[in-house]
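Quick start: read one record
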Amino acid sequence: MMKKILILVDKIGPKVKFLGNEANAQVACFTDLMFNVDGQNIKILVKGIDVTEYKLVYIRRADHSHFSLAGSLARCLDKLGITYFDRSFSEIGASGDKLTSYLKLSIAGIPVPQTIFCMGESIKRYEDYIINKMGFPIIAKELVGQHMTGIYSISNKKQFDQLPKKIGEKQRTAKYLFQKYIPLESEYRFLVLGDAVKVVHTKVPRDYSSLKLNYSNLNQNEEYLDVSSISREIQKIAVSAVKSLNIQIGGVDIAIEKGTGKVFVLEVNRGPGFNYDKTVSPEIDEVSKFLNKENVND
């Protein structure tokens, strides 16, 4: 019979095994977790077993490398209606963790690409599941990657073996977000200040022809557009995305799918990068006006 209690730790030793036996509980590590975020539907597997099979989850220990993951798990357990201890994990704040952001966006009804998370060392266990859910190509992103680092385009099963399993490109524990490939008609970065989109520019297209993702044209620059040229519906999605993450100054990357016109939020950035050349970009002027306005309002 399936054990109905799950004890989750960062490392399994003889003491936690003893606790598991005494409590008639299943013991697992954070590395055994897999998250599948598909719209507002969230599925979590633990060693291949659906977490809804458990009535109680005890997050026994989470070291610094798994602390954000414990917070993400807590939010999912809240949504799934599964009791867990300790409840304090649900209060883990902003940490820059992309998985947490995708979960919050998904729960808030913001359109995001289907996303599956697992640890690098657990890829072999879950790669067939990922392929079955997404098909090829699959985009793999290291959880802490930035500025095109740690992003891969996987076109066949063998390429899973080429992903770093222990230490990622940023010299951190390898953790991955796998996303269904979306053929893009267009992609934009929205600078949202408070309740409004104030700046929008195009994104430089990417080259998906090799395993390691790169820009298709390194000499191509973004083009700044009139905000009014973007539909109010898309602007509303950008504003809703930052609000769902409690961000007041955010950069929202939004893509429009080729052929369907569907809109997806690819990423929301706290502390987004700015182009400081005021002859090209209005970002510095708009941020300065926003800060001064908020200062007066306070």
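The longest strand covers residues 184-193.
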